[in-house]
Each structure stands twice: as structure tokens, then as C-alpha cells.
From TrEMBL:
Species of origin: Lentzea roselyniae
Stated name of the protein: Winged helix DNA-binding domain-containing protein
Taxonomic superkingdom: Bacteria
InterPro entries: WH-like_DNA-bd_sf, WH_DNA-bd_sf
Amino acid sequence: MFRCQSRGTRIVELTEEGTRVVRGVTRRRRAAISRIVAKMSEDERRGLVEALTAFTKAGGEPAVTSADLGWI
């Protein structure tokens, strides 16, 4: 669905089917990442978290907690 907020802005909403597709893709991607990270040592995982934290901070992204990740 499109709603015009201004001439240069559009708000797009997913349909129920689109939401299901995105959730399924996200679930499969997280499972794949979890399998990869499980092969890493604890020190490597800590290094990964530190690197990703620096990356998101530099990009101005909101902070992510371990609850958001599920694999720490």
C-alpha cells in the first residue's frame, strides 16, 4: 500500500504474504549465520561482536543487544 506524505516521500507497507516471506527469509538467514558462528571460537566470536559494534557505530546504526542476535 502506498500513502503519499509529500511529493518526494512514499510509505510502503508489506502485505501479510510479504511479511511472511520476509520473516521466513530472515529466519533462514539467521540459522545460516548461527551455523557459521558456531564454528568460531569464543575469542573469535568476541572479536566479531567488537568489529560489528564498531561498524554499526561508525554507520550511525542503533545499538544491538545480545538478545537481538541470539548467537552470542
